[in-house]
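Page 47, continued from p. 46.
Same chain as before, 79 aa.
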Amino acid sequence: MNSGAYFYIYKDFEGQWRWWFVSESKDVIAISQNGFDNLADCEESIFHLKTQSPNAFDFGCVNYNISKECEYPRDLCLM
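Result:
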């Protein structure tokens, strides 16, 4: 196995496909939000993450640059 970062795909106890994104230092730094009924849908979610993340930007609450802390993301406003 490659020693870099990777996606680990597994089936949970309910039979749903999920993934973890594991860093080079072996820390789990992202997980799939929901399970998938089939492997192809799980792999497609990884594909979308890989293709869209180079264009992603940092976003936070009003005090993001000061405290790096904020409320749950659903409470944030895009204005």
